[in-house]
Amino acid sequence: MKKLITTTVILLTAFAVRAQLPSFDLGLKAGVNLATLQADWASTENRLGYQVGAWARVGGAGFYVQPEVYLGSKGGKFGNIDADGTTVSGSGKVNFTTLDIPVLLGNKIGMDKLNIRFMAGPIVSFILKNDFEENYNMGTNVNDYKNQTIGAQLGAGVDVGNISVDLRYEKGLSNIEKSGKYDQKQNLWHLSLGYKLF
């Protein structure tokens, strides 16, 4: 009887301690994004890209921190350029391969296996590669890009079991073009599917 009581107390204590500890989840994600390079000196179009990587989520009492790391493809298309008051006819497009690291703060409402999440936070993007193509009538020098940019993400998601779906908007906060003459900021819509490993 004494052993049974001792075992029961140990189990109840373990469950109580576990309930006080923050939860930890780790998962994989993949998705698509619709990107544009915001520029008031040229007409711009959206480009379709991808993202693939991993995420972790640490939290308790409905709040969490979610750092992520993923490879992404983004960029933009340009139409006619207004260069120093002169309209330059033609088109151009740029494609970036980036290593993206957002750190999101969030809140989730619902049960462990079925909940709705809201999140926001900063993101740093490291440009691993860029490809720029143009057919303008004159040199424009708009394709001298920095190695990293800073932005902010805001979005919502749903968890059903181990599956999660996120929809986010990313706003570029820093100019991606080195000279500063041609202001270009990367804006994106993200739609991703995640799977919680544990």
List the helices and strands and how they pair.
Blueprint: H1 2-20, E1 23-38, E2 42-45, E3 47-60, E4 63-83, E5 86-88, E6 92-110, E7 114-134, E8 148-160, E9 163-172, E10 185-196
Antiparallel strand pairs: 1-3, 1-10, 2-4, 3-4, 4-5, 4-6, 6-7, 7-8, 8-9, 9-10
Describe this structure in words.
The chain is mostly beta strands and 198 residues long. The protein has a single domain (22-196), classed as Porin, CATH 2.40.160. It has 1 helix and 10 strands; from the N terminus they run H-E-E-E-E-E-E-E-E-E-E. The chain has one helix spanning 2-20; strands at 23-38, 42-45, 47-60, 63-83, 86-88, 92-110, 114-134, 148-160, 163-172, 185-196. The chain has an 8-stranded antiparallel barrel with strand order 1-3-4-6-7-8-9-10. Strand 6 (92-110) and strand 7 (114-134) form a beta hairpin. It is elongated and about 55 Å long. Residues 4-20 have low confidence and may be disordered.
Put the structure in a nutshell.
The protein is mostly beta strands and 198 residues long. It is built from one helix and ten strands, in the order H-E-E-E-E-E-E-E-E-E-E.
Number of DSSP helical runs: 1
Any idea what the shape is? elongated
Strand order of the largest sheet: 1-3-4-6-7-8-9-10
What proportion strand? over 45%
Calculate the terminal CA-CA distance, rounded to whole Å: 37 Å
Order of helices and strands: HEEEEEEEEEE
Compute the average pLDDT. Answer: 81
Please tally the β strands and state the result.
10
- Low-pLDDT regions: 4-20
Could you say which structural class the secondary elements and strand pairing correspond to?
mainly beta
CATH architecture term: Beta Barrel
Number of discrete domains: 1
